[in-house]
Amino acid sequence: MKLLIAFCLAATPSVGVSESNKGRDRDLSWTDAGLILGGAAGYLGLHKAKLKWAIIDWSEPGPGPRWQEDTVPTTAVIGAGVLLALSSGVEGGLVEAAGMAQAGLVTTAVTNIFKVLFARPRPDFVDRTTRTYDSPEQRDEELRDARLSLPSGHSSAAFAFATQTGLWLHRAGCMRGWSTTARYAGYIVPLTIASAVAWTRVSDNRHYPSDVVAGALLGSGVTLGLDRWQNGRPRCP
What we know:
The protein is mainly alpha-helical. The protein is built from 9 helices and no strands. It has helices spanning 2-11, 30-47, 74-92, 94-118, 125-130, 136-145, 153-176, 180-203, 209-231. Helix 4 (94-118) runs antiparallel to helix 9. The longest helix has 25 residues, at 94-118. 39% of the residues are buried.
């Protein structure tokens, strides 16, 4: 569906937009490549990082809700990001595709830094300590993950992709002469989907509400900051 939307956008003629009002005018740069590679390196480097750098000593949580499967698996979030990068690339070229990749990778790297520093126990931490595991390695991995609650990675990634999608559609609307209402409507659907993803992290007992709020603010904040730094203010409001 996202690819279909992108192809339709690409086929839509630009209507009555002056050269000075176009939504995008920069070329791909080494900065884009550096952000993508840096974000990927940060994510991979922190993915298995020990929690010895935690700056907060949380009190041991009391009995909490039971562990349960994810409503939205991590692979689904990654797949959505890849699909959005391809879609934005089809419509807006490599710059838009790079922007989507940067939003996801840099946000994920920053999220992992905070997860390691805060090492907050998840709501299902106690339940994970009492489960039976197939191997000591699996137990160690699960208990490590059980202390990575703040901020929510699903929420930060979902809001990063949603915010970048809104920015991409805003630029596409500028180039095609869409009304201001239509351009800002492009933020509503992706942000609503991101909010639903964030809520599942609470209903799945993987995060506290404060974790998902922090993740949402982080994802949108990093994405808006990167976009403003590289693209400046939108050429049309």
